[in-house]
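Dear Dr. H.,

I hope your travels went smoothly. While you were away I took the liberty of generating a structure for the chain from your last submission, since the lab meeting agenda had it listed for discussion. I wanted you to have the full record in hand beforehand rather than looking at slides cold. The sequence, exactly as received, is reproduced here:
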Amino acid sequence: MKKVLSIVFFLMTTLCTFGQVFTDDLHVTSGAGRTTDYTQKEVELKRVAGSGSRYTVTFKKLAPMAYKTFGDFEIDGVMSTVDAETGVTTFATSATEGKWVNVTPTAAIGGVTEGSKSTLTSFTATLSADKSKFVAELNFMTMGSDVSVVFGKQIDTAINTLTTADDNTYVEIYNLGGVRIQHLQRGINIVRTANGKVKKLLVK
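The corresponding predicted structure, in token form, is as follows:
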């Protein structure tokens, strides 16, 4: 009887800690306003044993810079809520940091080492009712600049809007070489607005 109970306990523990891995497109926008698109990237959603609705979300082989994979970025303390009508699960966290694991040699470029942490400024995610589609968005800091990550969702990365300088909702300004500047310069500037959109701005 004791052996049967041990097997049941083991199976329950295994189920509670089971991790589901999703493969989809991933888009990374660096602090310089450059967006890099990746295909076939993986994100693991893993329930914490005995917690019920608490998860760890891991972005596998995350590359905050083009062609420079830093390692896996783990976000702990992710809590879930299920919409009773749609069956969609929503995830959020109050964590202020994410941890780097399985760090690669190129991570040294960003000052990242095994177990080091990066400031997490936002994280949201959803899981479809049939558990087949995971969409996540996060923002974190590395090398003193913001990095924005979108997984599982198509985004328009083209900079194709040209406006005049009467729009003052921008939060970051770059020249055409991708270098961040403090003030608008005469000619074409690349700006990022408060809602995260990137566009060209003409100063006459």
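Two observations you may find useful: Residues 2-16 form the longest helix (15 residues). Helices lie at 2-16.

With kind regards,
E. W.
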